[in-house]
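Sanity check

After download, print the first record. It should look like this:
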Amino acid sequence: SLGLEKLKVNRFVDLDTIIVMAGWLHKTRSRTAVSYITLGVPPLRVVPMCSQLWAPSYDSLPCELKLQLLTDLKWTFIVMTVFNVALREEIVPDPDIVCFLLSSRQLHALNWWAQWMVHTSAGLFVKYTLFGLANSREEALRSLCAVGVDGNLLNDTPHRVLVILAVLQDCTTLSKGGARFLHIERERIVANHQLFARQPISQFIDDFDRQISDEVLLYARFDQYAVSRLDRGVRVVDDGSRFLIDHPCLRLPVLQLDPSRIMVQSLPEIVRRAKRSMTEGMLEWARLNVRKVNIFLRACDQSGPLAKRCKAIYEPMRMVFARITDHQAERVRSLEEKIDRRMQEELDAEVAHGIALENRIAALKQELCDAENERVLSAEREYYIRNVQDIGEGMDRSDWRGAAPRRYKFSSAGPRHRGESPETRACSQAPIAAPEVSTASRSELNVWMDAREAVGFGQVNPAPNKRERASTAEVSFASDVGSLGSCDDLPNE
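Expected structure tokens:
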């Protein structure tokens, strides 16, 4: 607090939190120690002597102080990036299976990782009393605490820290050699994917909606089973490669292939020695030998029989290369032509299907329009018949149909029925303009309405036809006679 005013800031990521999450167990976390270990150089330490002004603007600062300010920002960014990359290489060392599970490229996967790190570490701070007593990485992580309402650190371990502990289980830190074996790490990443899918984090739900099916496990293991039982601490000869290697105790041997000397006749024998299908064996070889993928694809481009033999693994192998290197692999012209031709055929089929659906929709709209017109005329016929019933014996009801509105005739054939020919169906699916409803019956109805009001029936009726004119005349004569009075009022003769 500044005097009597309280200063509130948004949650931010503390550098000490990232350092502890990355496995830092040194008791000191000073700028000098962190800078020497991560960057190899001492930090720039300058104590500026300024005026007594509080929080002056950036423009009013001298150039030397601006330089120091930018240096501090860059130093913090570089050190945080180093520890962030160390933690990422420890948790997700294989970008291929991560991008495969997220159905994305490397850029989207890195954005997800950055968002997850911010969500996990923001608002957590190191409790120095607990960190000073920590003798293991788990105890050091449990020293990360959240801030309470009163501004003090809570004693309970946050749920986010428990998730980190579950994710880091069985991980090999970079100081102990880091992740070495490909199949073990892919198996662990699949398990962590299921762990993330169960977390109630709304912004990551769409990223982990992929179900772990048998096909996903087959791709993750390359048809190698009992991977989780392999010893992680087995000693192997370090070849200086930055990539993950295969475990020496795998159940099935890894496919041995020299892409510069490959021949289509020898490929079945090479796959048979691996005791697996060609797809899993070749994809495992491509993942372990990423630098040789382009050499193999060039050999397929130069040999038509080899390209035909490997067409089933062409796209999966190129995707493996793209997920790891974030670049497109070499293209095989013959296979690209087949893929383009197949895609064009699918596109033409979908376009034809869309046109058929549009014609069908037009036919259904026409049928709906005809039904609405029929409903209007049905209401007019209903009204006409009720008026005929009200007139009763005042008109000739034996020929009431003459002035009744006629039924509407549909202008389209509607949906195809059993026994309908394709030509008839094509005609019925063609868009037809909605016909205009005839107003002849309505005009006759309006004339009759005026006539009924004139004779005093009080309701509107359609105009009478020729045969009904006599009945209408009798009704008018009776009205005139009634206006003279009763017969008792006439004088006696």
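If your output differs, re-run the checksum step. Summary of this record's structure: The chain has a mean pLDDT of 76.
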